[in-house]
Amino acid sequence: MSDLDPVTLVVIQNGLQQVCNEMDLAFCRAAFSPVISEALDRSDGIYHRDTGELIAQGDLGLPVFVGTMQFSTQAVIERARDIKPGDIFIVNDPYLGGTHLMDVKFVKPFFYRGKLFAWLANTGHWPDTGGMVPGGFSANATEVEQEGLRLPPVKLYKQGVLDEEILSIILSNIRIADQRIGDIKAQAAALGIGEKRLTGLLDRYGAETVEAAIAELKSRASQRMRARIAQIPDGVYRGGAVVDSDGVVDEPLRIEMKIEKRGEELLFDMAGSSPPCQGPMNSVLATTKSSIYLAMKHIFPDVPINAGTFEPLKIVDPEGTFLYAKYPRPVSGCAAEVSQRIAEAVFNALVPAMPDKLFAAPAGTSGNLALGGYDPERKRAYVMYMISGGGYGGWHGGDGLSNGCSTIGISKTTPIEVMEQYYPVLFEEFSLHEGSGGAGKYRGGFGVNYTIRLRRGEARASMVMDHGRTGPRGAMGGEDGGLNRVTIEHETADGVVGYTPPHLSKDQDIVIKPGDRVRVSTPGGGGFGDPKQRDKAAIARDIERGYYTPQQIAARFGG
């Protein structure tokens, strides 16, 4: 145990958290792209100077970046040479602790009184990093080069000065390059804010005291996670999840999850999962591990996040499966989609062991939709990226939330007013996906419907989504949630012609013209418990509010 008094320890803990929170706020307030400034698809954190282990992460950061940023910081540490104050490394290589290429990391050494104390890092989702299609979500890619520009750790800033040569290489390989400099400077400025705030914390308490607090906080997080794991009965638990397809081969990919609980530790083994796939639904190891970390954080939300949280979670590297992608496997769907299936498999395995803590599967897709084109009125190119919410699963005490954010993050749909202001589109519908909640004693929440009409110019649409073939799984006798649906409507001389992607919710490079529409319905959450046990008053309320038709109620709830 540390000699630190409890008050000082908790003040430093909150101080470290506040440093990260201020980086988060600075990043999103200064960023140019709506996916960062409005949808909050980014994260900031502090990492150990030698190991790269997570010390603290902002409350507004995406959970999936909890593990991946730790791994990418470690990759920078291994390759960094002659580091100086003001240096900032840029990296997006998926195989070096990353996710997909659009998640670009900045990593900065933090010096205090001339000595390296820690690393500051953040991730921002860039709307485009080149590749086959605008937005980077290539549903048909068969190698990573087709997905965009891949950057190993290189110094983008050298002693505080932006390297114009490296910047020119980056900007020469991505779309809407003239609009990226705003995000780049915002990302770097956020780390600058972190540098100032962390310096203030160290000035107040001293480097030795803060270091002692960091070590103690790691130890306590490990103890707390172990205490929570101890509540699970010893044994072996099995579960699974299914990815619709890889976008190239129209066959499902299966995740087999075996969890062995012994004492205060959990061992996760995914042997038996589908082999590496041709399309972009492979998951790199960092994302696979991070998905398990975030799943356990969902189950035990009171455990603080730092490297100690992960110590009792032992993961067998899933060699030979699509959950351990190696170069040159394409990976654009790993962070946004496969990660959620991995978390779903963890939930599915553990729900019988702890039904009072768990829930049916949530919608489990980020609903990635990218639209790229040229706006003739504004005379400029654009890439519009959209994510959408879905239903949460029912749980032992109530129905699931409707239109909730994805399992992997707090990212939200950019306000449609902002989208219409930035891009030549009109939202003709944004509504509840009625009937999509899985039936159960406690039903799943509902997804959403939205319709986008292109107003002018020509554009190309690409999407990487999931749960178009099988809905989110119900639990404890509950039914699965509703499916994801995507339709493109083309205006022709003979009327409207509808197009449904062969892979249901994955496709790319669909040409759309003024007047054409993209219609999307996102999945609902799974139901929890026997539908026939649902309270009659709750059923009547669902009918009254139009959530289900009387026919759906009779077929699914038996009443």
Overview in brief:
The protein has 559 residues and is α+β, with helices and mostly antiparallel strands.
Give me the secondary-structure category. Answer: alpha+beta
Task: Specify the overall morphology.
Answer: globular
Number of helices: 12
Radius of gyration: 23 Å
Q: List the domain count as a whole number.
A: 2
Give the rounded overall mean pLDDT: 95
Number of DSSP strands? 20
For the termini, the CA-CA separation is: 59 Å
Strand percentage lies at 15-25%
Give the neighbour order of strands across the main sheet.
2-1-5-4-3-6-7
Helix proportion of residues, in percent? 25-40%
Task: Describe the protein's architecture and organization.
- The N and C termini lie far apart (59 Å).
- It contains twelve helices and 20 strands.
- Helices cover 29% and strands 24% of the residues.
- The chain folds into two domains: 6-221, no CATH class; 359-559, no CATH class.
- α5 packs across α6 (207-229) and α7 crosses α9 (334-350).
- The strands form four sheets. The protein has a seven-stranded antiparallel beta sheet with strand order 2-1-5-4-3-6-7. Strands 14-15-20-17-18 form a five-stranded antiparallel beta sheet, with helices on one face.
- It is globular and about 70 Å long.
